[in-house]
Amino acid sequence: MGFKLTAPLWTAEFIFHGTGNSGSVPNIECLTATLGDHDQPCRTCHAALTPEGRKNRRRNTGAIIRLRRQNGTEMTVVIDVGKNFRESALEWFTKYGLRKIDAVLLTHAHADAVNGLDDLRVEHGRIFPIPNTTHNSTPASSHLNTPSSNLLPPIHFGERKPSDGLPYFSMGFVLVDIVYISDVSHIPDYTWDWILAVKNMQYTALIVDCLRIKPHISHFGLAQAVATARKLGAQRTYMVGFSHEILHDDWERLGKYFQNSRTITPSHGDTNHTITKAVEDIPKEPSVWIRPAYDGLRFLWDSNGVIQDLNSEFNDNELG
Ligand SMILES: [Zn+2]
Ligand SMILES: [Zn+2]
Fold it and tell me: Which InterPro entries match (predicted)?
């Protein structure tokens, strides 16, 4: 008796090339502010400038997926190329040995998702922009070549005020067995039906929008991100799209709180007890593995659904 181990048909690497909001972090306004006697400088933006606070430095949200098949072929898909993509590529392509981009998926047609397209023109001839309106599998996503590889129906992204009529749609993606939803304020039932029908086993990971603690007209806040993580029940959930409201370390504390249902104490310098208040109206249970992603974070997964972090801080068997 025992488990039968089969060699994975493929392994894939997931890299967060950016994890910030459209303005990105740090915010120049915070760094150049003239403070009065009682004003506090922005902790996150100032921390972002220090080596130990580098996880607070967040470029426009996006990802890189490098898929390696058993036969040795490789393909690289990039999700979103926003305003800071060139800067991100300079850092992560050189650090992680990336060179060729086979396809680019776009979640929505805002500067924070598409303004880097022009920089791709120089080096990469073959790009498949995905229009926001398509519901179908595209050449780019079908290249991932698994039955579950497909595009999500558009996810409601309430950019416009309701009185303006139609909502603004942003795309989410199911990439093999990872669900990627980076810009969202509401996931309609038909999208949930689709996500849950694609895979009747546990998803390996969910990447989900979380701009700040409170919800925003066009983005999830903490409560929505946690509720989505619980509803999908993926092995792991990584939050992305952060503003400068709280420190990366505070997002970590919030993530651990929702995994372990323990008490939470404000971090040093958090005189407003921001994170203690943040969890007040959110149910403690059920437990969920949820953490903030940060720029440059990488994890590996394979066709057996095994997930492994390439950055040391999560390699502590927290999966349980
Ligand atoms: Zn700031
Ligand atoms: Zn946007």
Answer: Metallo-B-lactamas, RibonucZ/Hydroxyglut_hydro
